Write a sequence for this structure.
């Protein structure tokens, strides 16, 4: 076992040799977390889309953004890129699973009163075809079919 930094490990650093690099920034998520305790869900997302609250860092990490939000329905967009790839040259399933989880969770949150929280209980994703950077812009829609006291679907 080596104690060398990850950049010296085999397979790391090769991307820099052929010119590919990605950097990104994100805002402090604390103001949004605080606002989530004070605003109902739809108002919270309205403020976020308007730019008055920072988006969650995961949106910058994966490069996805808002298309629309209404009570019980949220739509995100992403354009697949090489930085989303798994070792076999297609978008990693975790990218679209994360996008699905985000859309569904935000759809539930859009219907909650101020101070209420949610978490995912279950997620099932079927990978029916390969996604690559050539796929182009994709939309992911999360909708709420039922909002109960303890569980939403």
């Amino acid at each position: 076992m080596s104690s060398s930094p990850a950049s010296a490990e085999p397979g790391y650093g090769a991307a820099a040799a052929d010119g590919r690099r990605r950097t990104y920034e994100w805002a402090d998520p604390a103001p949004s977390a605080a606002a989530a305790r004070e605003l109902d869900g739809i108002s919270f997302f309205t403020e976020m889309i308007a730019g008055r609250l920072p988006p969650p860092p995961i949106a910058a990490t994966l490069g996805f953004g808002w298309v629309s939000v209404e009570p019980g329905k949220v739509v995100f967009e992403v354009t697949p890129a090489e930085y989303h790839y798994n070792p076999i040259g297609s978008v990693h399933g975790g990218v679209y699973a994360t996008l699905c989880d985000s859309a569904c969770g935000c759809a539930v949150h859009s219907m909650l009163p101020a101070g209420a929280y949610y978490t995912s209980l279950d997620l099932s994703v079927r990978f029916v075809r390969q996604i690559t950077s050539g796929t182009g812009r994709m939309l992911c829609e999360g909708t709420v079919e039922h909002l109960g006291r303890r569980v939403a679907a």
Notes: Strands lie at 64-70, 73-78, 138-143. The chain has one domain: 25-143. The chain has a mean pLDDT of 89.
